Here is the input.
Amino acid sequence: MDKEQICIIKKIIAEQLDIDEIEIKNTSNLFDELGADSFDIANIISEIEIKFEISIPYTEAKHIRKMDELLNHINDKLKKLEK
Here is the structure.
């Protein structure tokens, strides 16, 4: 995953949570540190799916708690598209 893709993801999260992108670290807990709830995460996932043309089923998304987990999951999905 390149820096541009990470910036896009951070922008989506920042807009949904009404926070500054600078607050989002790769180690940030989306719930405890950034204040997201399950509705926010659903909206974030939906925006990411649209932007990157991937699918993240609820059964997978419900286990994502931290920013690095989200980035790794998206990266895995993007790699599968390249094949």
The CA atoms of residues 23 and 55 lie 26 Å apart. Helices lie at 3-17, 38-52, 58-61, 67-82. Residues 3-82 form a domain with the Non-ribosomal Peptide Synthetase Peptidyl Carrier Protein; Chain A fold (CATH 1.10.1200.10). The chain has one domain: 3-82.
